Amino acid sequence: MSAKSKLKIIAIIAFCVLVQIGCFQTLSSKPHKEEEPVIVILDEHSSNENIKIMSDSLKANKNPTVYTQYNVDLKINPREKTFTGIQKIQYTNQTGNPLNLIYLNLHLNAFRENSAIKPYFSGVEDKITSKGFKEGFIDIQSVLVNNEEVSFNQSDTLLEISLKTPAEVEESIEITIQFVGKVPIISHRIGSDDDALWMGNFLPVLAVYDKNGWNKYPYYPVGDPFFTDIANYTVKVTTPKEYVVVATGSEEETEEDGEKITTINAQMVRDFALAISNKFREVSLETETGVDIHLYSTHELSNSEKILNIAKRSLEYYSKRLGSYPYSELDIVEGALYAPDSMGYSTLVLMDSKKLQNDPTVILDVAHEIGHQWFYNIIGSNQIKEPWLDEAMVMYLQKNLFFVEEDIESLMEKQRDRLIASMKPMRVVSLNSDLSTFSSWETYYNIHYLRGQLMVHALKEKMGSENFDKFLKTYYEKYAFRIVDTEGFISTAEEIYGSSLKGFFSQWMNATELPEF
């Protein structure tokens, strides 16, 4: 979700040139299609249309999914950057097989000082640690299953839990985990500085179990090495009273014994993130559909209104193009990444300080990360094995926010020519390449962002605009709150197109030289 800024130079130059020649669409312009959005109902008893739990397609399912519930009690010391927690997980075995072992991800342990897993390439270490470095970690102290102590093994970024008796198919169990941890001082997706702590992918969360069994991946230094199921979270965070907690979901604050307790409720989300500071400045905007957009910064920003307006326009665009944004709020939060960049989590976007404060392309990043609310959050995919499923879709669709159709076609032609030249010395060129095959951000970006979006453009050209728009809505309806793979993407496109597209996708995904549009 966060492409490195150096790799955006070509796109930014094209963006600036088209602004100057008048091809840039104003923020007040409307999406080119005037169709009714697909509505996802998140809670039919709620008075707020944006907080409702199941879509019609989900409710019609004869075997409805039972979503995992995480109940977490956290106490965070922002000054020491430490935390303690107890997490109760209500889990139902829907794998189709009895389970003797259960696996959870411990992504935070990639930030241990002597970790064998490095969440970044060595060439950027000076930027990541420019403000110093102190390790981060999470240590599991005990695990109970149905209130009985069980054995477990914590290795690198994985927690293996051994069950005393197998969890049978459709059996529900309660897993209780007690842990302690520390947020690293580092400029990364999880990190901290003198102003704030930002904590993405820090909680122990269940690995995904699919047709291949448990998905157990390390924290790769490229891409977004996270793969998770939709779940519900209720998180109680205790902090000193002067600190503000911003998180995935909606927050309610109370005070008790001189401390602040922030209770967070997040329903039907793909991941959970939070940020903490006693320096946050907040500006907000409410959309016409009742979504509250909040911008939290630790520095005074001169472009707050522009950021909020592009966030509003992006939410409206994707809601119209695919289906409704099913949450009541969206938070944009300032942190420190090792490049002027951004990272999207469910209902929360982390923006680098340099990007927020003085980068005119901030609107591109805001639009991009809001696109990821649909692609990866609502429509889930395996970002380790098939990153293009979210990156390519967002890269291509967001262009309609900034360019008219004719100029998108011109941009795609020029990008195809440039990418053909770039691919000649590359060892990895296929969209079937997973994160383990990439040794640089540049190659990853060229394939899963750029080649991927060229394929999506070619698909639109082949299907025609009307069928492509129908495909987007059908794709959303079919895979909202589920996990899609390449096969599902292709079969949905074929369903709308009316005939086989296997030859088309084989060429665009794997050919050593890019096809013509």
Written overview of the protein:
The strands form six sheets. Strands 5-4-8-2-1-14-17-16 form an eight-stranded mixed sheet, with no helix packed on it. It has a five-stranded mixed sheet with strand order 19-20-21-23-22. The two termini are 26 Å apart. 27% of the residues lie in helices and 28% in strands. By secondary structure, it is α+β, with helices and mostly antiparallel strands.
| β-strand number | 25
Report strand %. 25-35%
- Uncertain segments are 2-39, 43-48, 50-55
Provide the residue-averaged pLDDT. 90
Measured distance between first and last alpha carbons: 26 Å
Shape: globular
Overall helicity = 25-40%
Class by alpha and beta content: alpha+beta
Largest sheet strand order: 5-4-8-2-1-14-17-16
Number of distinct helices:
12
Specify the biggest β-sheet: 8 strands, mixed
Report the C-alpha radius of gyration, rounded: 22 Å
Q: How are the SSEs placed, and which strands pair?
A:
Elements: H1 9-20, H2 56-59, E1 68-77, E2 82-92, E3 99-105, H3 125-128, E4 137-145, E5 148-149, E6 152-155, E7 158-167, E8 172-182, E9 191-192, E10 197-200, E11 205-206, E12 209-210, E13 213-214, E14 231-240, E15 244-247, E16 250-256, E17 259-269, E18 273-277, E19 281-286, E20 292-297, H4 304-321, E21 329-335, E22 342-345, E23 348-352, H5 353-358, H6 362-371, E24 379-380, H7 388-397, H8 405-423, H9 441-463, H10 465-479, E25 482-483, H11 486-497, H12 502-510
Parallel strand pairs: 1-14, 20-21, 21-23, 24-25
Antiparallel strand pairs: 1-2, 2-8, 3-7, 3-11, 4-5, 4-8, 6-7, 9-10, 10-18, 12-13, 14-17, 15-18, 16-17, 19-20, 22-23
Helix pairs in contact: 4-6, 7-9, 8-9, 9-10, 9-12, 10-11
